[in-house]
Amino acid sequence: MFKEGQLVRVNLAGLQAGGVLFHAAVTDAIGNVVRQTSTEPSKYLIHLVFSFKGVNEVEVPEERVRAG
Question: How many structural domains does the chain have?
């Protein structure tokens, strides 16, 4: 389980968010946990340090998140 504000690394490869499809090379994006959005399955909203084509927040499954 991750805490709000925690620095994390996120694997975005193959995910789509806000009209942006993240390619295979985006496996180590840095961000902070905003909040947990779901428990079953466990998902988190992550505020990214760098914006990708205007997308700076993504919701990702817990298995794609690791401590930064």
Answer: 1
Q: Is the pTM of this model over 0.70?
A: yes
According to DSSP, the residues that pair with 59 across neighbouring strands are 45
Domain-embedded: residue 61: yes
Task: Please tell me whether residue 50 adopts helix, strand or coil conformation.
Answer: strand
Residue 26: domain span: 7-67
Neighbour count for residue 22 (Cβ, 10 Å)? 20
| Residue 47 placed within a domain | yes
pLDDT by residue (tens digit) across 5-64?
Answer: 999 999 999 999 888 999 888 889 999 999 999 999 999 999 999 988 889 999 999 999
